[in-house]
Amino acid sequence: MCDTGNTAFMLVATSLVMLMTPGLAFFYGGLVGRKNVLAIMIQSFVSMGWTSVLWFVCGYSMCFSGDVGGIIGNLHMAFLHGVNPAAMFSSTNNIPLLVFVAYQMMFAIITPALITGAFTNRVKFAPYMIFLTVWLLFVYFPAVHMIWGGGLLQKWGVLDFAGGIVVHAIAGMAALASVFFVGKRRVVEKGPHSIPLVALGTGLLWFGWYGFNAGSELSVNHVTTLAFLNTDIAASFAAITWLFMAWIFEKKPKFLGLLTGSIAGLATITPAAGYVTVSTAVLIGIAAGMVCYGAINLKNRMHWDDALDVWGVHGVGGTLGILMLGLFATTSVNAAGANGLFHGNPDFFFKQAVGVLGFSAYAFVFSYLALAVIDKITPVRLSAEEEEMGLDAVLHGEEAYMHD
C-alpha cells in the first residue's frame, strides 16, 4: 500500500532537487562575463536532458541493480526493464519505486554540472558532452553504487547522508583535474557580470537543498526534520562566517562572499545532515566558512584557474563534511547512523577518511585521463581567438544580451 504522505513529500523533494540545476546555471551564469553566460548555463541545462537519457538507459541499473564486485551494479534494469509502476521502494516507507528512480536521477543531473564552473570560458561543447557521458558512467555511477547501492563502501560502513562523497567531493576533484589539464583562461574577465543573478541562483540552490538533504531520508520522520534544520543552520553560519572573514581580510563585507559562504555551508553539511545534532551543524557551518574561504585563498596563491571555485567550495566542503561526520556522528539522533570519533568510535572516522580520500583521488585521476583521451579525439580547448570572441557567439550563435 502506497503511503500517500511519504510519496507526496518525496515528489516535492524530487522537484526541489530538480530546481537546483537551473539554480546552479543562474549562479554560474552571473559569475562569468557577458559574452559567456549562455555557454556556462547550457552546460547545466543540457545535463537535465542528457543525464536523464543515460539514467533511463543504464544509469539507474548500474547504480541500484545487483552488484558486480562491490563496484557497480548490473544492467538487468536497463531501460527500467522490470520496474513495475505499482512496485514499492521498500516496506518501511512505502513510496513507489518510480519516485526513488526520479529522485536519484535529479542527483545524477546536478553532480556533473557542478564541475563546469572550473573550466568556464575554455572548453568546447562537443568534448564537454563526451566528458559528461564518460564521467557519469565511470565515476558517478560507481560512486552511487558503492556508497548508496549496496556496494563495497556501504557494506564497509561508510556513511554519506546526501552526497558529501557521491556529489561534492568527486565533482570538486574532477573540477581541479580539469583545471590542471585545460590550463588558464587566456582572456581574464573583469569579474562577475551580474551579482544579482548569482543571488538568484543562490536562493534557488538554498531552497532546493532542503529537498536534497531532508529528502534523502526518503520518508517523513524526526530525521527528516533534523536534516532540514541542519541544512539551514549550517548554511547560515557558513554565510555569516565567510562574510566576516571577507570583512576582516578584504576590508569589506562582500555580498558575493556571503552567497559563496552559504553554498560552502550547504555542501559541507550535506553528508552529515541526518546524522548529527543541530549544535554540530553550527560547528560544521563555521568550519565550512573558514576552511573553504582558506581553500580559495590557497587556490589563488597557487594560481590555479578554478574560475568559479568548484574545488574550494564543493571539493573541500564535501570532504570536510565527511570528515566532520566521522568526528561528530551520533546514534542518539539517528539509530541508522553511527557514532563518530568523539562518541567513542575511531574506526568510523577512519572509514570516512579512507572513503572520501580514496574516491576523490580516483575521481581526480580518471577525470584528468578522460580529458586527455578526449583531447586526442577532438580538441577540448578553444583557440585564443575564440576565447576573445566569447563562447556564446562562437559555440552557440546566440547572445544573452542583445545590442542596440
List keywords for this structure.
mainly alpha, 404 residues, globular
Characterization of the model:
- With about 400 residues, the chain is mainly alpha-helical.
- Helix content is about 70%, strand content about 0%.
- The chain contains 14 helices and no strands.
- Helix 2 packs parallel to helix 4, helix 7 packs antiparallel against helix 8 (about 220-250) and helix 11 (about 310-330) runs antiparallel to helix 12 (about 345-375).
- The relative contact order is 0.15.
Map the helices and strands:
Elements: H1 4-31, H2 37-64, H3 97-115, H4 125-148, H5 152-156, H6 164-182, H7 195-214, H8 222-249, H9 255-269, H10 278-302, H11 310-328, H12 346-377, H13 384-389, H14 391-396
Helix pairs in contact: 1-2, 1-3, 1-7, 2-3, 2-4, 3-4, 3-6, 4-6, 4-12, 6-11, 6-12, 7-8, 7-9, 8-9, 8-10, 9-10, 9-11, 10-11, 11-12
